Every structure is written in structure tokens, then in C-alpha cells.
Amino acid sequence: xxxxxxxxxxxxxxxxxxxxxxxxxxxxxxxxxxxxxxxxxxxxxxxxxxxxxxxxxxxxxxxxxxxxxxxxxxxxxxxxxxxxxxxxxxxxxxxxxxxxxxxxxxxxxxxxxxxxxxxxxxxxxxxxxxxxxxxxxxxxxxxxxxxxxxxxxxxxxxxxxxxxxxxxxxxxxxxxxxxxxxxxxxxxxxxxxxxxxxxxxxxxxxxxxxxxxxxxxxxxxxxxxxxxxxxxxxxxxxxxxxxxxxxxxxxxxxxxxxxxxxxxxxxxxxxxxxxxxxxxxxxxxxxxxxxxxxxxxxxxxxxxxxxxxxxxxxxxxxxxxxxxxxxxxxxxxxxxxxxxxxxxxxxxxxxxxxxxxxxxxxxxxxxxxxxxxxxxxx
Length: 378
Description:
By secondary structure, the protein is an alpha/beta fold. Helices cover about 30% and strands about 15% of the residues.
């Protein structure tokens, strides 16, 4: 018996995009049997920052090489004419969505003459992937390369002039992509985290927090959680920063940030809370604003160091961090590891980590990012 399959003329991502642009209401994840399809593609302006009248904005969709459809916001200068422009792919912070920091960076850099793409990583925001709220050093590095694929196919873009910019945990992903993807011509980070180091060794006060025994305790805890998830048939939620007490007992929270701040909170907790949980930066699709990761997600990073090949980065590199950022040591160590002879570490006076998420404190060095990409994407 011979069976003939009829080929579809329009891809799933294309149909989703056409539906969005034609005014069809956004779909929920449950509306599709394809777990890699977008969760939604809303066409309303729902960013945490005001829309600029100096740029054109398009909602777009594209696939990574794992077949997951990513959703992004493409920003183009209104006065671009018919020229082919340099382009920048942006993502982050870790657990944020494109309607937050990366979108602000993208729109601002588009005002300065670049085509920019802020995208939601796989398994988060409007992008596809199931189960939800998962991160992976491999897949999320690939997300940056998929964004380069997309940008290089746009008629407004010179594919030989593409850079990447990663914020917070996506700084490490951006550097990892730059070490692997030879199409990337310049890389920048802002208040970067190395998430494999953060989860594998614990975020400390200027240095790693876990002892070897602590690390083994965390691995044991996470793998015991796998039994529970397997028995239940579904992943449990949990924070990605695990705590080990003096007895070696491991604990984590059911959500990334609390509903309310405790009395006398840790200053770093307050930084994140004041951005993600308050109107300043809250977004309903941001896992940092509303919930938690898949509890076993840190296993993806424990034995997969993102910056193993940082010494092979040869392209121009700009690493920006805050003088008072708790994450500063990540940036300083990454700067030392990067092999490029054209690299710069820029420390912003008085800035903490979250000061560089938005421009409430007026500390994001947009002029410096503009000068860097202008110099190296020419």
C-alpha cells in the first residue's frame, strides 16, 4: 500500500505570523498540538517602556535548529531609506521577556541607526517549547544563532554586519554564541552572569558560594526531585538559586521572587523585587515577575560551563557592568577569559546590577554601546 503525503504550502510559524498580522486573536499554548509553536503573538504594545516614534516595530517569528519557534520584536529606524544596515540580536535578563530590558535596549539602539531584534528565549515568554520555564546552555546559545539567521535574511540588513548583546544571564549566552558562531562580528554584554557558574557553584559575595560538598548536595537534591517529577508525570516549579545550610540541607523557594518583601530584605533581593514585582518592570509573561522555573532546570547548567571556549572569542568584545553590581565578578572574570585582543571592560560608577536593566537611574551607557557597534559593524 502506498501513502502519499500532501506538503503544506505555508509553515506553522508563517501561519501564526499571518494570523497575528490579520487581527486574529492570540492563541494559547493549549490551542495547538505542536509544543514548539509560539504560545502567543499579541500585536498590542505591552512593553514596560514607552513606544518610540523614531522607529518602526514588527512582531516576528522564526525557528531555531531544534524546531522551536521563537517570537521577537524587530525594531527598524524610520529614516533608514533603502540602505542595508548593521543589526544586533538581543536577549535577557535571565527570566525576563522581550517586553522588558532587552526591548528597551533594542528600541534605543534602533533609534541610533541599527536594525535590532529582541527575542524571547525558547520555553519562555511568547516563544514555543514545552515544558514551560526551562533554560538550557545549549538551546539558549542556539537561540542567539537563530536570531542571527533571521536578521541575515531581512532585506534591511547587511548580513556581514551582525552583532549580539546579552543582558544579565544572557551575557554568558552571548559570549558562548560569539565563541561558536563565526557570523557574529561583535559581542557586548551588560551586567552579565555566567549562569553555569551561578547555578553550578552558587552566586556569592564576589566569589563562588558552594563548597564541593555543597555542590554534591545540590546535585543530590535536584536528582531526587527528578524522581518526584517522574512519579507525578509533570515538573514541579522552583527557584534556580538553591541554598545549602551548615548541615548540608538544600532548600529553594516555590517562586523566584516573593509576593511581598520581608522585613530588612537582602539588598540584592530588593533590587530584583523593585524591578520585576512592581509596576516599574512587571510583565505577566516574565517568570521572574510571576512564578518560578522548572525546579530541575539547574541540572542543565551544572556540568556545562558556558565560557569554556571564551579564549577562542576573537571578535571585538565590550563587557559592561556596574561598580556596585553583585554580579561584577562574573564580568571581570569573563573579561579575563575572552581571547580577543580588542576587548574592553566598562564599569559604570555607582551602578548596581538592576540599574542597567532600565534607565530609571540614567546609568545605561547607550552612547557607549552605540559607539562600540558603530566601530565594529562597519
